[in-house]
User: What shape does this take?
Amino acid sequence: MDGRDDNVTFTYSGRIVKWQTLERAKDYETVVVFMEMEGVEHAGYLMRKGDVVIAKGEVAKAVRDAGIEGVEMAVAPPLDTNALIMLRVNRPVKDVIVDVVDIAFGFLRERGFI
Assistant: This one.
């Protein structure tokens, strides 16, 4: 993983993934996660690729349902961004990010999005 602690880029399954810290407090950190996805249009809380449309909140629900230790919150990111998901974590992000991206990637793949 390359970058500062609050802006890190790495590769997952051939795709560039980045997280950016929005807020860091004593007991938690809030981050947005971006994933390189060719041909994807972001429109508010939705992502579209061809005829396939997915709500970013569905990706967040898949992450929440996975029950990843350290992930307190997984929600759709702010609607004015191309981020995939927003997280609040109570462990170092580097300790949970691969699990989060694995769940998100699997969700998107199952729906024929990637």
